[in-house]
Amino acid sequence: MEWYKQRPEEVYQALGTDQSQGLQESQASAALEKYGPNELKAEEKKSFAAKLLDQFKDPLIIILILASGVSAFLGDYVEAVIIIAIVLINAALSLYQEGKAEQAIEALQKMSSPNAKVIRDGHEKQIPSNMIVPGDLIRLETGDIVPADLRLVSSTNLKIDESSLTGESVPVEKDYSVHYDDVMEIGDRENLAYSSTIVSYGRGMGVVVETGHGTEIGKIATRIQSVEEEQTPLQRKLNVLSKQLGMIVLVVCMMVLVLGVIYKHEIYEMFMMAISLAVAAIPEGLAAIVTIVLSLGMGRMAERNAIVKKLLAVETLGTTTVICSDKTGTLTQNEMTVTKIFVDRQTLNVSGTGYDPAGEITEGDRKISEEQVPSLFTLMSIAALANDAKLENIGNSYKMIGDPTEGALISLAGKKDLVKDKLEADYPRIKEIPFDSDRKMMTTFHENFLPGKVVSFTKGAPDLILDRCSHILVGGKVEELTPSLREEILAKNSEFALQALRVLAFAFRKFDALPIEIDHQHIEKDMIFVGLTGMIDPARPEAKEAIKECKSAGIIPIMITGDYLETAYAIGRDLGIAESPDDAIMGRELNTMNDEELRQIVKEKQIFARVSPENKVQIVTALKENGHIAAMTGDGVNDAPAIKKADIGISMGITGTDVAKNTSDVILTDDNFATIVNAVEEGRIIYSNIKKFVSFLLSCNIGEVLIVFIAILINVPLPLSPIQLLWLNLVTDSFPALALGVEQGEADIMDQPPRDPAEPIIDKMAGIGIGLQAIAITIATLGAYFYGMRAYGADTDGSRMMAFSTLICAELLRAYSARSSHYTLVKIGFFSNKAMVGATAFSFVLLLIVLYVPFMRDLFNVVAPTLMDWGVILGFALIPLLAGEISKAVRFRDR
Known about the structure:
Low-confidence stretches: 97-113
Helix content: 40-55%
Distance between the termini: 65 Å
């Protein structure tokens, strides 16, 4: 039911509530039985066994397990154990690194109010919030957490902070008497109070209309549960690659068996050859290396203030083509700040951000003194004294207690060293007329401000205050408020409002003594107008540069916020997200659009204002359907469903709610939008490095397949045994591949547009490079093998030693060339990657152990090479390195 369209008496009748007595206990018990507890049910968690099973669903892992089984069946237990060990290590690493997204519902439960003040049987009592039922009458006071969704039935100066639900910067004024006939968005329903929002001012009463999953926050919890986990781009690409490798293995094995029949070899012998080729074709170390490199990437991102919770999200960041960002607390500071003052008929600028009183007041480039603007002291005194907020200095930061608007005014006074506590001591408050939403102003009375006088200080809505003023303070002197001066003030108010500033007016009145009748009709009239202030939740200083970097990297920034259109556009224009009002749209306009219209509108708009949590999910979904890799950043409960729906969800670590943090893939520990750009750069580097070592490993594997296949085709003994191939794939190649995984990114990596999400991990250019390298490896290894056959004889340990040693040395040398796909070693430096130097040296030492330790020689069926052999081995091993460097020099000569 659309409760905001119902009048209080209609709500009482619909829910059977007595407007003074509340529900009877018997009614409450029946309702609890009907509706259930007022709590959010956690989604059933995956068991550890289920999570472990998920690690073995990758096609490449399945192929490895099958290969291990065949090896064990044929008696090659060493190979079988090694392969299974690699699979288990990979699974353990993945389970260890992955995040805890299922905790989102638990965090939502923690946000709920532990107790609530309820009226039952005519008596007020406190009960656990999970025992509240629809129809209960709830009392709300300042500081309370709203325990359920309520239709307000009374309100006095009631303001509720809904920022975590709607994204609105300032507390929302509530009015129970408002009635709606039209459809209203969540943030515009003044007669409703929502579960888990916080009463920041005033008091009220409300009837519970929704509990548990029926509340707005409950609907968010349901949406989080319903969003299915999707594979990351890297997962999809590796799965495609795994399937392609699987097909290659099957095709090659079939060809070997056919050749065996043609050459009339024994079936068992040909089956063993097919196994050799299967071992050669599969890069057994690939899965583990990808996992380790992503883990190392997680560590580097953490050093740059981005904690990545899900392993594969590390790379997904690098594919991002669009970043959807919440405004409040993400692009802005979620701290109201005065930026403009109109006083003494002058417009002044205010520097500084947030509640920190550091900053200056200037006119143009000129710093303003009190002598130049005599009325400034009066304005700031009213701002600080007609004020119920407090500002606490905690270390290097300031914490505001109370209304954010009033906190901004205290900060403003502090910029001229006017401290509220000192002002209150000098000019004590002796009486007040509290703010209320009807007259939209508040008044306080103070002694000592003027000699022998009592003054009333009033702040509030500019148009209403101006109507009650008869004079104006200009240059420290009181003048008559003429019609032309009124027009000037109203024009300035409109100018500030068009800049999306929240405008307040300030006035005072002098009395010989404290008036006997203290009411607004007698006091708030014939006042002296002092000036205006304009404030806004300002953009983060670093966000502007980050937006610029996003655009230069080909990433589209989009603002999605629950705040008003004018405010969103003003911030968006300041940050460089939007250029004209046509770039912005209201969320309610999305509600009538079909999927095709949504896909079109997200291509045209960069700012979406006054959106609901459902709208945020719609926008992210449409972007993904348009082929984008979408990142969603936010800090509130209202952001959580879209954060989960996005390809990469990002939350704020300091201001972010537990819900947002537990739903996201990445947490920014410094709440800095600019950190996203650093994380994107790191993600691009990681993907680039993954492509490098995948190309490196596959070129070796294809080379191995060609070596074995050509040997079978020309009917010569196999140059390499299965255990030698396994050693190459798991040991020799793995260490250089890991070193490629920590390669520094190319200097131009953030100047390139995001890659096409549909682009395979091995694109055309990489495929050409792999083919060239595989051919060079085949030529080098077979050349050394044929030399060994002449020197040691055919089908001997000596000839296989020549092939084995040459292939390993060729891999170690060409690993240096694989460090860049387009820059030669002359440009990047041969030894600039220290990890590569250590990895290749370690792998070479392992080769020496195999060749010169007797029991290892027997295990691998090789002999110790002579000095002459080493000359031949190294000569042939240089061929792939030279081929790669010459190819890059020719293909990328313009770089």
